[in-house]
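quick one if you have a minute, typing this from the bus. theres a chain ive been looking at and ive put its sequence and its fold in token form underneath. please have a look and point out which stretches look like helix strand or loop to you. anything you notice is useful, everything is just below.

***
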Amino acid sequence: MSAKVELPMKEVFSVPVGTVARMPVRPILDCLKAKAASELNEKEKTIPEELEMIRTWIKQSGHIRGRMDDQFLLGFLRACKHSLERVKEKLDTYYTIRSVLPEVMRKRDPLDPFLRKVIRMGVSVPLPKTVKPDDPKIMLIRADAFDGDVCDFPDILKVFTMIGDILLRDDDQMVICGQAAIIDFGHSSSGHLFNFNLSFLRKASILNQQGSPLRQKGFHFINTPKGFDLVLNIFKGLMTEKNRNRTIISHGSSLESLHKYFPKSILPTELGGELGPVQQFVDEWEQRLIDNRAYLVEEELLGVDESKRRNTNPLAEEKDLFGTAGTFRKLEFD
């Protein structure tokens, strides 16, 4: 197990919109440059101008309190294939949906004793390797690591978003090439998969699809339980049309089938791989979240103030989630 370094607790993070420290854009590998150019319409010489246009739009929007640094905004440009209009829509959705999910987006301190228990479960674990440096990164989701006696699904999603925030900031391969999810049910029964509030699941799906700049490249299910077809139908029903058209494969209990897509060299021992046990990656990510505590807690100050909105709320038609279009005005971001 990796050593844990506990940082001193701080009570207040003050980050007024427009003053977030700007970090320079990192150089990337040539293979990532080529993929960004061919698949994401990226032109290096136009990036500074595009970033400035986005910053200007955020400031003029009035209702968004968001990050202004180049690396963060470049993630949205890449996710939207450098379409400025799509960037505006995704950024607005990103901060709007986060503002109405306080059970997920508040109390994100990785040193909080309860949250550390959730982190240590290791339900969501990014795997470190891919076959090629421009392959999609791999996110392992372990359904049987979820202990419903310790926490609820929103707590699991909270840790998932914390990991996602760090990946968005730090992992150019993830941002440019996307991610493939391996969802391992292990020894979990199908019963506890239905202990979720569908309204919350719908909000979570918006958060992780329309509101996330991290692009999905496929879903692979392994060790699926009895009755999984029903679970998969619910899962597909929550997907955007684009994600429903991605690779979605159920491998049953066949590791041989999984290895046709993911060779043993990039998988942990639990999936018949050669990387060693998953726990080492859980430990590494626990420490990484602690090391980035200030950044994660700072995120709580970012979001939207609906009383200052000048444009149409991007989720106004989601009446099944929020009652009526007008209810957003009661959910001001304090």
Notes: The CA atoms of residues 218 and 247 lie 4 Å apart. DSSP finds 15 helices and seven strands in the chain. Residues 1-21, 322-334 have pLDDT under 50 and may be disordered.
